[in-house]
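Action item from last week, closing it out:
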Amino acid sequence: MFPGNLQEVMNQVLSAQRQSEAKLVQARTQAEMERIQSETQAEIHRTTAAAETEVERHRRDMERDAARQTAESEAQIFAKRRQAAELLEQHPMLLRLLELESLRDIAQNSNARIYVGFDRPTGDAIRVQD
C-alpha cells in the first residue's frame, strides 16, 4: 500500500500514460489515413491522365479515318462524274434525255413556272422560275 498522496500521483501518471498512448495511436491512425488518401488521389490522377490520353488518341484516330473516308468518297464521286461527262460527250442524246427528265421533275412542282422561248429559231431558250 502506498500512502494516499502517492497513490493519487501514480494514478495520474498511469492516466497520463494511457492518454499519451491513445494520442499516439490516434496520430498514427491519422497519418496512415492521410498517406492512404494521398496515394488514392495520386492513383486517381494517374488513371484520369491515362484515360484522357487514350480518349485523345481514339479521337485523333477517328478524325484521321473520317478524313481518309471523305477523301476516298470524293475521289469516287469525281471519277463517276468524269465518267458521266465522258458518256454525255460521246452521246449527246443522253444530255437531252437528262434535260427532259429535269423538266419533268420541275413540272411536278405546282409553284414552278416554265417559260419556253418559241420566238427563237432554235427553241433552246428555256427558263425555269421557282
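Closing note: The two ends are 119 Å apart (CA to CA).
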